[in-house]
C-alpha cells in the first residue's frame, strides 16, 4: 500500500459504481488531511444518471432511503471509508476535504452510496484524484 507525502497527489483512482468497496491503494493515518476530487463522469443507479455529487433519489428510491449505506450522503454520492467497514463514512462528492480521525491506520476505500444489496444494477465509474494537504 502506498503512503502519500504532504503535497503529493495520486491521480486515476477508479471508483466503479458496481463495487461495494473500491480500494484506493492509499494508506491513511490519524491527523492527515486530504483533498478528494472526482471526475465529471456519469455513473448510473439502474437507469438513473448521476455524477459524484449524487442525486436526490426517485420516489421509489426514497422509500428505501433508510437502507442506504451512508445516511449523511445522497443517493450515488461518492463516499469514503476506512478499510472495508461502514463504521466511519465520509460523504465527498465532486470536490471535498477529508480529515482522517484519530486512531486511524487503514486503506482509504471509496464507493457510490447505495443500498448494500443493490450494487448489481449499477453501471459506470468516476475517477478520483487524492492530494495529501497535511
CATH topology: Jelly Rolls
**First CA to last CA: what distance?**
19 Å
How large is the radius of gyration? 14 Å
Biggest sheet details: 5 strands, antiparallel
Overall pLDDT = 96
- What's the CATH superfamily, by name? Galactose-binding lectin
Overall geometry comes to: globular
Query: How does the helix and strand content classify structurally?
Result: mainly beta
Architecture per CATH nomenclature, i.e. the level-2 architecture: Sandwich
What is the chain-wise order of helices and strands?
Answer: EEEEEEHEEEEEE
Question: Could you give the count of β-strands?
Answer: 12
Uncertain runs are: none
| Integer tally of domains | 1
Strand content: over 45%
CATH class: Mainly Beta
Number of helices: 1
Helical content band: under 10%
